[in-house]
Amino acid sequence: MRYQDARVRELLAGEYVLGSLHGQARRRFETLLCRDPDLQALVNQWAQTLEPLNEHLEPVAPPPGVWSQIEQQIGTAPERLWSNVVFWRRLGVIAVAASVVLAFLIGIPPYQTPAPERIAFVTDATDKPVWLVSATPQSRTLRIKTLRPMNMPAGEFCVLWLVWKDGSNQGVTVLPDNMGVMSVKLPKAMKQDPNKAELVVTVETGDDAVTNMQGKVMFKGPWSEL
Q: For 122, left (φ over 0), alpha (ψ -120 to 50), or beta?
């Protein structure tokens, strides 16, 4: 891990604050965080930038049926409940089931793999993060999370492209202007390796916004590997 690389440190700090850094990668980062004051300051900066976004998220409550099922499974606490092995085993099963339901409600796979190995923060003209683009290894699907709405003028769109060194490009999607997460499948006919492409965002207009790249470049940057 290139922990001294400024861009890698920036991306890791952002992923850590977002909560999308998992498993061994998160443990390694927290170990480094304990002895690196500069990295701590970077995490604090990301927290100040991203945490206000929580104000735009509506709370999601689990269906009433989840709690009623838990109560039915647990039942009335018998004498010496805390030493009842069967009770704890059943409670463990219920907890797993509840976590699956909650994960489904907020749109996160219950048994998701560790943090994506390829990520990129798309920033605006002021270098503020607007979208987080990520992809798992060997995946033909990109996950795009809107961190801050752009509020584009009517008729203008931010379009994400993959651009290779030979100049060829592939339109991916019109980037969303509303908060949330979307998944985009790359075309099956695309022969170039998306891992070797550079990410470019342009401001386009018209019906052919994703097929004809001719607008002003808003962002250009490579993937970062974690």
A: beta
